Amino acid sequence: MMKGAVRTVAEASGLQPPAIEALEARVSASAANGYRTLAVARGPETGAPVLLGLVTLYDPLRPDAKQLIATLRGLGVPVKMLTGDALAVAREIAQGVGLPNIRRVADLKAASSKAGSESADLLAGVDGFAEVYPEDKYIVVQHLQAAGHVTGMTGDGVNDAPALAAADVGIAMGTGADVAMETAGVTLMRGNPLLVGDAIAVSRATYSKIRQGLFWAFIYNIVGLPLAAFGLLNPLIAGAAMAFSSVSVVTNALLLRRWHPAEASRSRERIGKCVPTAPGAF
Questions:
Q1: How far apart are CA 7 and CA 27, in angstroms?
Q2: Taking CA atoms, which of 60, 74, 204, 228 is between 20 and 30 Å from 23?
Q3: Contact yes or no for 226/254 (Cβ under 8 A)
Q4: Is the sign of the CA dihedral 200, 205, 209, 215 positive or negative?
């Protein structure tokens, strides 16, 4: 048995160019609707296989994919999709999540080989790339970093590992391959992509608390040290002030316990909207 790209399998089966072009036309028509097509053939190990037919596959979007894109954009994080699918399939899928401008990764490679800022302009203007090979993900991350972007990469497969390692922040899904989790700097414990937005939100909240703690620590010392040096501050009051400084910084940091991920709010909202359809059923 043999399965794979339609043109490759058709050529191995000995089909003539007109027949192959007819199959390619059917593949293109399906791709425009978001369907991927594989060819299946069967034959002896030493002879040419016989083409059995085409198999059309559809990989539906996760129901929360569009919400994830909106959440990240709300956090000020631009999103780019990288997929190995054909351009027509990628465009159809990306339209469903609000990413209208998808290009071939070959366009980026061609632009980067030319002088000037064409590759930077291309990166700024697109929402993602199609027909991406595993090594291309790493190349896209490098181009983004070269253009001055702080880059995050989310993936769950073995072929995502080089890009996860190269990105400033690599985020792996807990349901993915072990090598992806080993390579990434952040591992989401569940396979819910909405946790990516929550991870960014809690990291920003933590960083904000660190800055606030440093600010108040410097204020206490800037005010207290000159007063103590000139003998204007009673030692008992100075000791109490330093203790209060430590307590205030720690208390401010503990306010992070009040932070709740957006996922929890979404879960409570979904539970609140449940209406029993039968006695005892939810």
A1: 10
A2: 60
A3: no
A4: positive
| 3-state SS class at 129 | strand
> Tokens at residue 141, please?
């991350």
- Tell which residue, 38, 37, 43, 55, has the closest CA to residue 14: 43
Q: How many helices (H) and strands (E) does the chain have?
A: 12, 9
User: Which residue, among 170, 119, 127, 168, has the nearest Cα to 147 in the 3D structure?
Assistant: 119
Can you give the pTM of this predicted structure? 0.75
Residue 225, helix vs strand vs coil: helix
Q: Are the CB atoms for 44 and 56 separated by under 8 Å? A: no
Distance CA 256, CA 224 (A): 28
Whole-angstrom distance, CA of residue 176 vs CA of residue 108: 28
CATH of 65-194, one of 1.20.120.450, 3.40.50.1400, 1.10.287.690, 3.40.50.1000: 3.40.50.1000
Asked whether residue 275 carries a pLDDT value surpassing 80, the answer given is no
Q: What is the pLDDT of residues 121-133, one digit of tens each?
A: 677 789 999 989 8
Beta bridge partners of 128: 81, 102
